[in-house]
């Protein structure tokens, strides 16, 4: 049973990354800075993005041949966890996932063409989802051979940072087979990108209609995309789980601080067990999420995720989704009347929780698949 | 610790020897339910079975391997006992039930006892000839141990004990008790008035009354002291140092490396055991394990159990414990005991109509194992500080919330 694999490693390199990420996120993503970005068009500070590129963070999943550090996707986990803790929200996760796919599955020509630019700060985004159903294996967007290469038809939804991305990695059906295709945004008319309103206002996403877009045949990644799609779904789940675990911890800290300072009936309200005990449940849920996240990070890297790694990624996402949802919900409730206001930071977390639980599949989505892995052996 | 660290090959060789011995000598299923922990020894039949098993294991040289040979051990390195313990767990043997002796009193006596005390007590602990019990909790002071009120008054060469203790595991079988009693009621700090005794249970004035548990079984007693006289030589650690000594005994629980004699204090129950036991059952005319709601709930439990193991693992990685350093160690008891409660409770729920049968009914699933296991688990969510007290401690010490 995959239950027995308890591997967890956290080496010096990851420790140093975690330390530098902590300092960076704390300085660059203060609460006023997060608040200031909420109404902005692109949702993140391009200078911060460039600094992240300069630190080499966009190259963790990229081999040294293509300008990366070759540390491996697991090194993105402590980075993303810190970003989650400080609500530093950028196209980092999606760009890293695209880089990972290109690195693993694209072949050297496409990798050479795109990876060095991504490492340098070019924004890339995944275009996978077509409906509300993250579990739907069907792909509606098609690529058909045309005079000048491939002609696309169909639309994707909730494409992260689509308005500022410079390339999309799109799942398509090509001659009846699932494939992945690199689509430079230059090939997509701006009218085809329509901004969507995210419940988590620290993020940006858009619907992208690829109908009529043409790209060259050479942009098609080699081979059947099924295993790559499975892998990117698992790694996406892991990275968003890491972010959610970080956000859950921050949300817990925010609430605990309020419970220490707010007084009612002559006592700090945190002295009441009706508030204290659920906070301990939040803590345990968050710690469990962290354990799964770092366990999964120890099992994914160069190789395609095996059963144990799949199980670990799914547990991480299932647990982190629930932890943040619970932390956000209790944060609003325990802040009382203040918690109901937009001004109170609890709203940032309860909103994020709703986004975060859905992206790359919610807790039930993953538990359902875990059931097959764990109960049907 | 004795001598230098043994080499991996020495350990492997020893482990193989233990494994082979166990394959041949571990007891067959006795045909009645055995206790999962030492707190569940509820009948003479169970007691005699476990006493015989521990004696056999010790006689073979596999208990207290690292304790001094002059007192019944073998004077070897603790790592050898650790190998035995792992093998006992792997082969799912019955428990080594004399836990208060093996894990608390024994290491304490070896650490701070006199030579006379060592000669008197240690061998009997290992051989299971002398069963030990613990007298800490009192009827009115369950969660507040430091406030224990049982009195011990020095009178010549004796102490005279008055008061009562409760939740004395195997109190009706024990020959000795580790006893926490108040020698100085006027001490400024309540902790400073306590002393620690290695008390005989057979003294006049000591009576035990068995407590029947929700399972219908026995296992605990209430213990009454009425002008009971025990020799002053029973005092250990000096008068007034009882609290410090009591805290010291808690340190040994962490296994052979911490000083305990080793063995298998409890059988771990896993959700995978539950799944094995209910796999053949049905619901709505279909196999139970095809029900999507059942599957979802079982996965939640599997995750919870896995998270416990991962938390243990993470405790050893300091880089991943910088934000809330006390969080994992302080919450271990709460997480583990509450998980077991939920899992075992679900174990009954899953049985359909069979879940309403009980131990003694031949149709009960696994002999009523889950029914009994669920009820018995309350010993862990209540004993040693209730889950509610644990949540207070965690909330205050990890999250910094104000005292309740």
UniProtKB/TrEMBL annotation, chain B:
It comes from the Bacteria. GO terms for cellular component: plasma membrane. One of its GO terms (molecular function) is flavin adenine dinucleotide binding. Residues 45-129 form the Acyl-CoA dehydrogenase/oxidase N-terminal domain. Residues 133-225 form the Acyl-CoA oxidase/dehydrogenase middle domain. Keywords: FAD, Flavoprotein, Oxidoreductase. InterPro entries: Acyl-CoA_Oxase/DH_mid-dom, Acyl-CoA_Oxase/DH_mid-dom_sf, AcylCo_DH-like_C, AcylCo_DH/oxidase_C, AcylCoA_DH/ox_N, AcylCoA_DH/ox_N_sf, AcylCoA_DH/oxidase_NM_dom_sf, Mycobact_Acyl-CoA_DH. Its cofactor is FAD. SUPFAM superfamilies: Acyl-CoA dehydrogenase C-terminal domain-like, Acyl-CoA dehydrogenase NM domain-like. PANTHER family: ACYL-COA DEHYDROGENASE, ACYL-COA DEHYDROGENASE FADE34. Belongs to the acyl-CoA dehydrogenase family. This is Acyl-CoA dehydrogenase.
């Amino acid at each position: 049973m995959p239950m027995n694999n308890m591997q967890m490693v956290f080496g010096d390199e990851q420790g140093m990354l975690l330390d530098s990420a902590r300092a960076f996120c704390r300085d660059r993503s203060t609460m006023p800075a997060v608040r200031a970005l909420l109404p902005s068009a692109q949702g993140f500070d391009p200078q911060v993005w460039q600094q992240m590129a300069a630190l080499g963070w966009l190259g963790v999943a990229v081999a040294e041949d293509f300008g990366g550090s070759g540390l491996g996707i697991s090194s993105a986990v402590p980075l993303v966890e810190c970003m989650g803790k400080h609500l530093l929200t950028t196209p980092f996760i999606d760009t890293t996932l695209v880089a990972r796919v290109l690195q693993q599955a694209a072949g050297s020509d496409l990798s050479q063409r795109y990876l060095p630019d991504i490492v340098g700060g070019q924004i890339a985004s995944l275009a996978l989802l077509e409906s509300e159903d993250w579990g739907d294996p069907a792909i509606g967007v098609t690529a058909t051979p045309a005079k000048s290469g491939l002609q696309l038809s169909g639309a994707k939804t909730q494409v992260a940072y689509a308005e500022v991305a410079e390339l999309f990695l799109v799942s398509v059906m090509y001659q009846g087979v699932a494939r992945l295709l690199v689509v430079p945004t230059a090939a997509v008319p701006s009218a085809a990108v329509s901004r969507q309103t995210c419940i988590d206002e620290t993020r940006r996403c858009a619907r992208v209609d690829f109908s009529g877009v043409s790209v060259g045949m050479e942009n098609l990644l080699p081979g059947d995309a099924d295993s790559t799609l499975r892998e990117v779904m698992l790694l996406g789940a892991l990275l968003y789980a890491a972010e959610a675990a970080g956000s859950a911890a921050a949300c817990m800290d925010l609430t605990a601080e309020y419970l220490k300072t707010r007084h009612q009936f002559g006592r700090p309200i945190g002295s009441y067990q009706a508030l204290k005990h659920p906070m301990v449940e939040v803590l345990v849920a968050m710690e469990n999420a962290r354990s799964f996240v770092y366990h999964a990070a120890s099992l994914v890297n160069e190789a395609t995720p095996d059963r144990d790694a799949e199980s670990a990624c799914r547990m991480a996402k299932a647990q982190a989704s629930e932890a943040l949802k619970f932390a956000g919900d209790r944060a609003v409730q325990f802040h009382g009347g203040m918690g109901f206001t937009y001004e109170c930071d609890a709203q940032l977390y309860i909103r994020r929780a709703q986004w975060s639980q859905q992206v790359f599949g919610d807790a039930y989505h993953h538990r359902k698949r875990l059931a097959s892995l764990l109960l049907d052996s | 610790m004795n001598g230098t660290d043994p080499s991996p090959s020495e350990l492997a060789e020893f482990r193989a020897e233990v494994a082979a011995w166990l394959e041949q000598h571990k007891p067959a299923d006795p045909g009645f339910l055995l206790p999962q922990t030492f707190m569940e020894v509820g009948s003479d039949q169970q007691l005699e079975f476990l006493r015989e098993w521990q004696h056999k294991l010790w006689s073979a040289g596999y208990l207290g391997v690292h304790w001094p040979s002059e007192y019944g051990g073998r004077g070897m390195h603790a790592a050898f006992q650790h190998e035995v313990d792992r093998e006992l767990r792997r082969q799912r043997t019955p428990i080594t039930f004399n836990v208060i002796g093996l894990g608390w009193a024994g290491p304490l006596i070896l650490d701070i006892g006199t030579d006379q005390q060592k000669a008197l007590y240690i061998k009997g602990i290992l051989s299971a000839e002398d069963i030990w019990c613990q007298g800490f909790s009192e009827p009115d002071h369950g969660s507040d141990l430091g406030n224990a009120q049982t009195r011990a008054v020095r009178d010549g060469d004796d102490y005279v004990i008055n008061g009562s203790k409760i939740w004395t595991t195997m109190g009706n079988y024990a020959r000795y008790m580790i006893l926490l009693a108040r020698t100085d009621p006027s001490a400024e700090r309540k902790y400073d008035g306590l002393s620690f005794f290695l008390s005989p249970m057979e003294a006049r004035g000591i009576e035990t009354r068995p407590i029947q548990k929700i399972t219908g079984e026995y296992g605990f007693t209430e213990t009454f002291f009425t002008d009971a006289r025990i020799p002053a030589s029973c005092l250990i650690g000096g008068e007034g140092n009882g609290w410090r000594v009591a805290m010291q005994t808690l340190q040994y629980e962490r296994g052979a490396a911490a000083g305990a004699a080793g063995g298998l204090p409890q059988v771990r129950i896993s959700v995978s055991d539950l799944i094995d036991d209910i796999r053949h059952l049905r619901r709505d005319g279909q196999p139970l394990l095809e029900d999507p709601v059942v599957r979802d709930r079982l996965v939640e439990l599997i995750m919870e159990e896995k998270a416990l193991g991962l938390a243990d693992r993470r405790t050893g990685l300091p880089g991943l414990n910088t934000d809330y350093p006390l969080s994992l160690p302080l919450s271990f008891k709460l997480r583990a005991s509450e998980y077991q409660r939920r899992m075992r409770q679900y174990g009954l729920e899953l049985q359909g109509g069979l879940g309403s049968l009980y131990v003694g009914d031949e149709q009960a699933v696994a002999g009523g194992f889950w029914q009994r296991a669920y009820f018995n688990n309350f010993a862990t969510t209540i004993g040693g500080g209730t889950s509610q007290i644990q949540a207070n401690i965690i909330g205050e010490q990890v999250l910094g919330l104000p005292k309740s």
